[in-house]
Design a protein that fits this description.
Elements: E1 5-17, H1 18-21, E2 30-42, E3 45-49, H2 55-61, H3 75-81, E4 91-93, H4 99-102, E5 112-116, H5 117-124, H6 141-148, E6 162-166, E7 170-173, E8 176-180, E9 189-193, E10 201-203, H7 211-216, H8 226-243, E11 246-248, H9 253-256
Parallel strand pairs: 3-4, 4-5, 5-6, 10-11
Antiparallel strand pairs: 1-2, 2-3, 7-8, 8-9, 9-10
Length: 266
């Protein structure tokens, strides 16, 4: 049996105010945070969890988030560091469709996009305050047309990816489980990966951006439902305890700097 390998792909960084990371708690001032993808080389396929941001999109529409990404940090280059090509990826596992988590989905037209059914539906018609968060849906022309209230062209659906829409906790492959953690978005997923010879890794996604979110039980100010988001913080603690998992947070630079990055793996 082929052992599972897990690669952390460094996709660059963004910066936002501390009050956006810690809702009503702060402190204020810019916090620079990492943006990364998780590549899982598994016997049942090659899976990627989240795909970071698209640099030209960020520079054009949201320059205030101060995007930094070198050519080496572009997603195809990071995948090459792990010894693969974008066309090798069989499944794209989406935590959610915010701009810093789906900006590279377009590199994988051959892959099945796994998404929470609620996230897919919400991305079609996000409320006004979330429009910018869902501004980069270029990987799916049909979804983009629905968001903008435009009729799809005759070829739109031909260029849209194949989806596996799910809800609840779902084991996508042996030892690779999407954990439902709603609230930050309509259909947010964290990810639990079991590895031989070490504790499982629980990728929190934006359900908890940093350890401090869990320590203070405070969600980020970017959220759809604060009650569900707070419940998801508790869910992360429960899943961690049940599996003895190590937590990998989505946007915490101090921890990120200590992790192995491709070409190294877990």
């Amino acid at each position: 049996m082929k052992p599972t390998r897990l690669f952390i792909l460094n996709g660059g960084s963004l910066a936002i105010d501390g009050y956006k990371v810690y809702w009503n708690r702060g402190p204020g001032g810019d916090i620079r945070f990492p943006v990364y993808s998780v590549l899982i080389d598994h016997e049942e396929g090659l899976f990627i969890y989240d795909t970071g941001f698209d640099l030209p999109h960020m520079q054009t529409y949201i320059p205030g988030d101060q995007p930094l990404q070198t050519p080496e940090q572009a997603l195809p280059a990071q995948i090459a560091k792990a010894g693969f090509r974008p066309e090798d990826v069989t499944h794209v596992l989406s935590s959610h469709f915010h701009i810093d988590h789906c900006g590279g989905h377009e590199y994988f037209p051959q892959a099945v996009v796994v998404s929470h059914v609620n996230e897919y539906a919400h991305a079609m018609k996000p409320p006004l305050f979330e429009r910018m968060s869902y501004s980069d849906l270029s990987f799916d022309p049909a979804l983009e047309c629905a968001r903008d209230g435009l009729p799809p062209s005759a070829t739109t659906y031909d260029r849209s990816p194949r989806y596996l829409l799910v809800r609840g906790d779902v084991e996508i492959a042996s030892g690779v489980t999407l954990i439902e953690t709603l609230g930050h978005s309509a259909g947010h997923y964290s990810l639990l990966v079991e590895l031989a010879g070490q504790a499982p890794i629980l990728f929190t996604g934006d359900a908890a951006m940093t350890p401090r979110n869990l320590e203070m039980m405070v969600i980020g100010s970017f959220h759809l439902d604060p009650i569900k988001a707070t419940e998801s913080l508790l869910r992360l603690k429960t899943v961690q305890a049940e599996h003895g998992a190590e937590l990998f947070f989505s946007h915490s630079m101090p921890e990120f700097q200590t992790w192995k990055k491709a070409p190294e793996w877990y």
